[in-house]
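pipeline/complex-builder :: batch 7 item 3
reading input block
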Amino acid sequence: MPVLVQKYGGTSVGTPERIHRVADRIVQTRRSGADLVVVVSAMGDATDELLDLAAKVSDRSHPRELDMLLTAGERISMALLSMAVNDRGQEAVSFTGSQSGIVTDTSHTRAKILEVRADRIRDELSRGRVVIVAGFQGVSRDREVTTLGRGGSDTTAVALAAALGAEECEIYTDVEGVYTADPRVVHGARKLKNLSYDEMLELASLGAKVLHNRSVEIARRFGVPIHVRSSFSSNEGSRIRKGESMERVVIRGIAHDPDVAKIALLDVPDRPGVAAEIFRAVGEQGVNVRLIVQASGSDGKNDVTFAVGSHEVRAVLPVVEEVRKRLGARAFVYDPDVAILSVVGEGLATSAGTAGEVFDALAKAGINIEIISTSSITITCIVRKPDVERAVRALHDALRLEQEP
Amino acid sequence: MPVLVQKYGGTSVGTPERIHRVADRIVQTRRSGADLVVVVSAMGDATDELLDLAAKVSDRSHPRELDMLLTAGERISMALLSMAVNDRGQEAVSFTGSQSGIVTDTSHTRAKILEVRADRIRDELSRGRVVIVAGFQGVSRDREVTTLGRGGSDTTAVALAAALGAEECEIYTDVEGVYTADPRVVHGARKLKNLSYDEMLELASLGAKVLHNRSVEIARRFGVPIHVRSSFSSNEGSRIRKGESMERVVIRGIAHDPDVAKIALLDVPDRPGVAAEIFRAVGEQGVNVRLIVQASGSDGKNDVTFAVGSHEVRAVLPVVEEVRKRLGARAFVYDPDVAILSVVGEGLATSAGTAGEVFDALAKAGINIEIISTSSITITCIVRKPDVERAVRALHDALRLEQEP
């Protein structure tokens, strides 16, 4: 029998009633003839409530104990969901990350999956049972409980789908799929039926918050087809698979994120290894850098500019000052009042015309572009924060994204 | 270094403030020079809240999933407590039942401990860390999560103390210790400084609810000294250890429990194995029988009378009717309006005088005794429920228990 992995987020299992609805869907899917593994997040605000409790007990960092604490969340949701599925006459069994064989490294609160030993899951599937797995959690080789960090349940689902050779990994969320732009900002935003892993990666890392990029990276590496869809309807969502022809310019959509800040190191001596030193130091804080631009100066000095999420500024600034001193850079500029936007589509690289269209549309809307950075499938700009929604709308119009290509 | 095990119940860790207080005590104890293992229950009402949630999702029995669900409770309290201890500069680490090596059978919701593999705990102790262990939970040999049923955290604590060869197992609770009678009923009730395992077993199983009898049985088998004391004061509590001389009659106290019911099978054919059949069937419901009396008739028939907790009647009655039919007993009597009381003290068996004193005191107080059953260290009576508090006070007076012996 084909194997299907479904992942339900915290909103989808937020109340007993919603758990019943998810159980209905699970039983229906199982009866339609697939071996089914279900990955589940903690109920609604459960994780935040546990974090609040931790903050009341301690204001310091306890990564190991925090993982122990937070993993209680999925334990609750998966046990309840398993009860509800069993009540419908479909045998089900819930497994912790450890029981599911999600083996990780020892980096508490942001562990990476090393391997998936899915024997127990396979055993239970072969007995006809639905296996309900705690998302977000794993176990290290020295038997410590770990968590996978943000987007961890998506990562669990895709990793399991890869290990089990699943036909598809369905990610159930509270939106209908991936759109050409944020529907709350652009009225004519259109749901994408298909997109490639690379396109999804660009959209995910730049603010289309339906799917975490770690999970997309795993899916790309192992060729796992993903289907992002809503747990509140039976509509088809967006399917993410390998890219198609690179010869056609197809602009998939526009991602934007107003919650970023810009940091620029000024007059950095131009010698090998400088960029590596900067971004190794930033990366050690667990911070995901959103964009990097280096403008080569002629005087043996460079400016290195990058963007990070606003909530990561506190972790980044002390490191930047340390690196500045060590490298002998003159100063750094910190600007919280910017936003990032990105036009994403395979084939952009081979089409000079599209870049022109993008800059033209922004110019006509009177929007100043502070920084430009392009890849083979993206054109990314940093603009002033108050301009960004207008910029997205102008681009969506100019590129005619409300129409099917 | 000597090893000490401390157990804190749900009330003791019910709020962040109380967790801080417990952390203070732990650090203080550790600094006084003992290797310390701390067993902790779920916070306050956490277990009841999880049970409520389960009831909202399902009205059927899901023992495996219920264990998965409930073990989230201790996970939360132990992680928070470990944070608080670490914050005080004392390294601590929290362990689940599985990580602590509490290996059980597979009887979900009432698992029995098969062995304790305490290597990981020993390792952490040898590094100078305080080990904080989730009470109430274990893992079966096929790696399923189990819980130990009622009194499970006490059981965890004593089993660990036995496995680690601890000097003492301190049970912190919301009362000051074990008393000669329930202080809410008898004004002059006196705290017992010392009592034997057997005496504690009789007091525990008959209503002195400070300590579950399973834990006392393990303590007796392995000779673990127990110290029952309050987490809200630093007073000495009650110490439970091996019995002393059997030659002296020392009455330790009077236990009573109004929450019992009496069941009598009438005219049971007198042949071998009858009692076994009755109490095997009752035991299979997980019910703890509080007292058994069989009066031999001369006509080849017996009446078999026993008492169970009021909350267990629902599970017991259908079984009793089944057994009655199978054995060919004439009828059974069910009487919910009784209470049990028990005078407990080593040496009672060799002192006919004391039994006389007990019955005399009850007669003088005008209390009718329905059933009498004695062991080497107890005299147990069943009386009408409304009489029981008066009976306890009369006995406490008559036996002069307010004075040190």
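note: Residues 63-87 of chain B form the longest helix (25 residues).
queue -> next item
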